[in-house]
Amino acid sequence: MSDKTNVSDGQRAASDPLAGQAADARYKSFNETADPWKVIGTLGYGDDRTMVSTVERVILDADPSQYPGFEDKLLKSAADPTCTEAGYGFVCRLLALIASPKSVAALKGKLTSDNEVVAHLTRMAIEQVPGTEADAALREAAGQAKGGRVAAGLAGAVAARARPL
Amino acid sequence: MNVTRRGFVKTAGGAAGVVTAFPAIIPSTVLGQSAPSKVLTVACVGVGGMGLSHIAQMLDRKTVRIVAVADVDTYHQKRAAQMINKKYGGAGCRTTGDFRDVTRARDIDLITVATPDNWHALTAIDAIRNGKDVFVEKPLTLTVREGQVLVEELRKHKRIGQTGTMQRSSEGFHRAAELIRNGRLGAIKHVDVLIPANNRYVGATWKPEPVPEGLDYDFWLGPAPYAPYTSQRTHYQFRYILDYAGGQTTNWGAHYLDIAQWALGMDSSGPVEVDGHGVYPSSGLFTAPTRVDVLYTYAGGVTMRMRTRTDGVYDGNIIFYGDKGTLDVSRSKLKSNPESILKEKIGEGEIHLYKSRDHFGNWIECVKSRALPVSDLAIGHKTTNLCNIGNIVMQLQRKLTWDPVKERFADDAMANRMLTRAMRGPWSLA
User: Percent of chain B beyond pLDDT 90?
Assistant: First the structure.
């Protein structure tokens, strides 16, 4: 089975503002890119995010059984040395949709990153993961954080998750 | 006068500061909010275009006095303060860049909120927890979870909260809803809602720009993820970026879906199924859908479809279809088919809906009487849920089952994750 996810859904293409040929081109580009999951991690602020929206569409349309495979690709992208701050943001937004305790384990060290932006982006992904693993990671990070907005954000996340629905 | 937070609190927090600045105004901590002769003190948070409208709607009232404004943009602060000082005379209007200076000030009774949408809930909750009554612009919240916490805090602290869905205080919409509630259209089968066109495409890329002098950009971002400043991100156009707002789905949907909920008797409930399809920019700064199309189904089978209108009219429109006729209402028209429906009178023993013809006035009256206002925040929350789940279903492009009581989707974990968002520190819904 190929590691690559192909997009050729005509219905989805028709829904895109780049309808018709342009949409087809967008999906063609995705299909022909060796690792679109890595590409989205390399983007800078303000760059063309067409590949991000294409990957997002793939995730939104996927069967839940595909999520673990997508999660692996996103975590790989996040760990790649070429991953930028903006690209990490795209990756974390997508992880927020599908992340499991596996992402919690992989990313929790960045919850207290010295880079405040990275710390928050990481929390965007982890805070959406239901279950005790994310609770524990957030609590632990809240205890380790050196103060400031990162610590306050972590403490707030722990309390917000504990608040009954 | 622009002061630091510490300086502001120092001036405003104690009785001496109050007497110095406003010798004629006695806050409710002294007289109690229900005292008939009491002049209520107001602070306006977010004084861009909508905030100026709030100010304009309060300046001529003798029952309130605007004593402070808060905005992260000093230009907005100064412009609003000048407007207020010109009306009252003197230079008494205080200004600050930090809303907590007013939500926590002891000499302020009321808070109006007209910030970007991602700030509505946080600002209002802080005000409520500090004993203020609130007027919160629509859409009430950015997420379903924010609305849940906001309403819970409102009730817990026994505050009065009005949502800025001012169409409920309009004669035409009130008349339409009352006719429908009293069966003049027979059984309602379907509702069509049109909302104005959305954001335009502004190119595939954008460039970070220097933050303009006077704008506290980090505070402007607030709970949203960090992103560099670029001019099209802020002020009116924030509406088209999903980190801060929900596009026209929430901007106009909050008005017209609100009238539908009212007319259908669904103020404390909502649909049980939602399906939709949005057209999203695949690149560029704006992320809200350029075309919306959402189909809501209520228990009992009534359907409601909300779509983007394509005729260039910058207003919404709602048409109710019943088995005895149709009713078409917008801000500029009220028509029925047959025409005789509009001539019908509502009898004494029939349903008479909450009557308000002055949205701000209704709020202020309710602050004094402690009665619920026409657009109580709990009602605004249920309406905003329709907007927010509409945005979710358009992104997912699959039919979802919605529980309007538990406010959760059935059997769709991804959709349920989209009901809330992580907030950038120090902000949280804790």
Answer: 86
| Overall number of domains in chain B | 2
B397/A60 Cβ within 8 A: yes
A17 vs B222 pLDDT, higher one: B222
pLDDT for A14 equals 37
**Of A44, A43, A48, A73, the residue nearest A58 (C-alpha):** A73
H or E segment to which residue B423 belongs = none
pLDDT in tens, B237-272: 999 999 999 999 999 999 999 999 999 999 999 999
Say whether residue A1 is in contact with chain B using an 8 A CB cutoff. no
The model's pLDDT over B199-246, given as tens digits with 9 standing for 90+, comes to: 667 788 999 999 999 999 999 999 999 999 999 999 889 999 999 999
**pTM given for the model:** 0.92
Question: Which residues of B touch chain A, with CB atoms under 8 Å apart?
Answer: 148-149, 201, 204-208, 225-228, 230, 277-285, 290, 395-397, 406, 408, 413-414, 417-418, 420-430
- Asked which of B116, B133, B167 is the last residue of a domain, the reply is B167
Question: CATH number for the domain including B79?
Answer: 3.40.50.720
Contacts of A29 in chain B (CB under 8 A): none
A161 found inside a domain? no
Quick: pLDDT tens for B141-163. Answer: 999 999 999 999 999 999 999 99
Please give the pLDDT value at position A17.
Answer: 44
B360 is a domain residue? no
B265: left (phi over 0), alpha (psi -120 to 50) or beta: left
* The domain boundary residue, chosen from B102, B135, B167: B167
Give a yes or no: residue B361 inside a domain.
no
- Beta bridge mates, B96: B70
Q: Are residues B144 and B281 in the same domain?
A: no
Token pair, residue B71, equals 């905005």
Helix (H, G, I), strand (E, B) or coil at B67: strand
Same domain, B78 and B134: yes
User: What's the confidence (pLDDT) of residue B235?
Assistant: 87
| Helix, strand, coil shares, percent, chain B, to 5 | 35, 20, 45
Residues of B in contact with A17 (CB under 8 A): 201, 279-282, 290
In a domain, A27, yes or no: yes
- Give Cα B74 distance to the centre of its chain: 23
